[in-house]
Amino acid sequence: MLERIRASIPALPPAEQRVARLLLADARGFASLPVGELAERARVSKPTVVRFCRSVGYDGLADFKIKLAGSVNEGVPFVHRAVEEDDKAGDLVIKVVDNAVAALLRYRNAAASQAIEDAIGALTEAGRHSRRIEFYGVGNSGIVALDAQHKFFRLGVNSMAISDGHVQVMSATMLSEGDCAVVISNSGRSRDILDVAEIARRKGATVIVITASGSPLATLALGSPGHILLAADHPEDADRYSPMVSRLLHLTIVDILATGVALRLGSAALRPTLSEIKKNLRNRRYSDGQRLAEDADS
Question: How many CB atoms lie within 10 A of CB 95?
Answer without folding.
Answer: 17
